[in-house]
Amino acid sequence: MPPDELVRRWSTGDGVARARDVLERLAKGTALDGLGLATVDGLVDLRGLPAGGLDAHGGEVVGADLSHAWFAHAHLTGVRWRRCRFDRANLSAAVLVGGGLTECTMRRADLREAVVAGGIWSSVHLAGITSNHLSADHTTFTGTTFPALRHVEFTACAFVDCRFTGRLAEVRFLGRGQPAPMLLRDVTFASSDFRYAEFDGMDFDNVEFPDDGALIVVPRSFKAVAERAGMISLRRRDDVGKQLRRFLSEHSLRPGLSATAGWAVSRRDLAPDVAELAASTLHEAQQQLRAEGVIP
């Protein structure tokens, strides 16, 4: 059924009353049983549902197809979604607080300016999402696959067994100043195409980056490594050395950085001479600190 028809069917005939019933139950967090809803591929057929601006609290939705549904500006608090499809759904400017998604897909969904806070996303596939100005706060992602991302901010989020498959442009992983270190564990970055990606205060535990020389990575103890690299760089008293020391200070000396946090930057984000000096001094600093037993 074409997308326009999926949407239109909720505004004609019996679809009007059916949409009202579905939205009322979603808002109250009650089950959708007994509404006579059809199924598609074994999932409750909610494709094209007009749920823009929905204010929903609690409840669990299991096994629903919400492809092409409209959740723009919705506020979903404590709602748990399991085995649901949100493929090509519009969740722009939606706010998802608490709750979470498990074994769901959001292929080519629109998540522009959406806010995710305090939930758990497990085994979620986000291939092809539109992510401009998406923000996530205190959210745990496990087994989740991320596509290329642009203008995304993750604050105090944890990532376990996740995979980032594409370019990261102005994507920020912010963990500084949290009571416990924020974690990237068993995470793979398949692409080194980073442009102003920022890792600030995130602990790296078995994190894989492409080994193609495009990135400068300090897998642990960046604060100590940056301090030692700054001392090593004093051999260079020229503008390149000064630029590097300034850059390292800006990234390592702000309050709240844990002693164990890792760090990474794209060489393209630095002037070529500064990038070359950064790579060599940070490498030498790590070697010295390992030899001294300061870092593992």
Automatic annotation (TrEMBL):
Pfam families referenced in this protein's UniProt entry, alphabetically: Pentapeptide
Protein name: Pentapeptide repeat-containing protein
Domain of life of the source: Bacteria
InterPro entries: 5peptide_repeat
Species lineage: Bacteria, Bacillati, Actinomycetota, Actinomycetes, Micromonosporales
